[in-house]
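Hi V.,

You were right to ask for the full record rather than a summary. Here it is.
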Amino acid sequence: MSNYKIKSGKGTLVLQKSASLVGLKGTKKADFTKADYVRQEMLPSLGGFKVVSLQKDGASVDDKLDEVRQRKEVELGTHVYFAEGSKKPLVPTGEVFIIFQPDVDEGEQALVLNEYKLQLVERRGSDQVTAKVTKDSPNPIKVAQALQKVSLVKFAEPDLDMLLEEYDLALPKDTFMADEWHLKNSGFIPSGQYTTKAGADAKIVDAWTRLDSLGSPNIVLAIIDNGFDISHPDLKPKVFRPFDLWTQSDRLSDGDPGFTHGTPCASLAVAAANGQGMVGVAPNAKFMPVSGTSFSVRATEQMFDYCLQNGADVISCSWGTTDTQFTLNSLKEEAIAKTARQGRGGKGCVILFAAGNEGLDYVNFYAAHPDVICVAACDSKDRYASYSNQGAEVSICAPSNGDWPLIAARASWDPGTTIRGEGAFKYWADGVERTGPYKHFGGTSGATPIVAGICALMLSANPNLTAKEIKEILQITADKIGSASDYVNGHSRKFGYGRVNADKAVAEALRRKDGTTGTTPKPPSSTVTTPVVSGQGLFRFSVKRQQPQGFSVQLGVFADYGNVLIQAEKMERMFSQPVVVNITQANGKTAYRVMVGVFDKSADASTLQKAMKAAGVDGFVKDLKGLG
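Predicted structure:
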């Protein structure tokens, strides 16, 4: 079959049609599992379609799909694709995101849409639109390919959905534990007769003692995932405003043995203290299950907007992708940024993502977002968990498996691991059956909800903290583990700023609430995200008019003038270059474009850009013409 080359995120995808899989949307009464033209249902929901394999009877997938589309119970049918070198099925949702060239007016934009029989869905700005294919359009892959060749179009990308990795680990074959050592590690696991390192834990019990409670019932902790068993005794009484992207309702999808991941993740964060089973880090917090992870732009926007609009304080995500073909595009980045900055009445929702379990030298692309707390994993002896991805974006690490795993709740339909030749199921690698619906768990999937629970405890102590302050406090109160050589300017690519310390984090949250005097932990030298409040901080600067000519290196656009001052001071100190600020308007609000250096030649600006990148500062060469 022919290949299709399209732009996606910040890269290019080479796609090929599946020879057997298709996506079908049916009427309400449609049951594709009983249809004689369906060989097997593969996925219940991807991009709004059920992914099935067809009974082709020697026909091509094109011919068979055309035939199936004529069935009265089939509303829509689409091809399924695979990216080059990937085994993950991709489904086009039918929408195409288009950015037109500057100065292309709405009339000209309409001509382009009409040419390809596209329907305008949403206008996102003067040069950005979302359109969807109609029955008279080519398929969205071909439309995007064609649009990328149109001179009026700067960028066109079809919205694609795929399954995202769930960052837990398969059960290892060595022994496991039955105790929650991550809450308080005494140095020995009695049920497993296993020696750990005393104190190699997240200091949860100490934080409870300092709070004199298990946290506040006013804090809402959202888990975005799949496979929530909300009938589990540790979760049932805590459920608050659930939502399912697949059913578009509060009826959560359940019962599929392929989707069980959300239950253990949720339990580590919020499992109730009910005298049975296990207990979460923030057992008094409300639990908002948002079911249906998706790579789709539209679904990404919906899942985060749902949390924003429905009162989530903390959002924990133990999934993502490190496939370099699937970097985040600007629309997904904006969806996360919007929730991180506008949630909680402007204080920002605290968003956490797992670093990922591939053992790579870079993290899950979702976790790399600057507004996200990226969580890596360490083990019960304060060692680096070898599966945990590394990178400059790692904020913090937290206990998980590596030598001895975590204990978590399991969904009632979780099949566990089959014991060789016996046909029975087990949930514990040591073979010891333990009472109740629980299992062993790990990976950065386990570490992330532990830190999410700690964030809920911090907000219980001080609900006025911003999302940026939560991230800063976690980093400055972390305990350095591993070798001193792992850290540069206080940060390690493996451990972030260290192993999370809930007790110190809660103490700092309380100190900021009370306004008491004392020694404030010094922020890591690379932390510049804390906003400057009016009346705080002292800066000396000189202002000169800059002519709109030459080239500079732009850092970004900032809404907070305090952050502009911090960035300007730091850039001038680091690179001994003048800092140029362009005052502009963005979405009706004053914004500040911060740039470093002024050069006659773009090549000289490129040289500075490379030096900045080597120092860990991202930027791009900017022509100053027209900015005056």
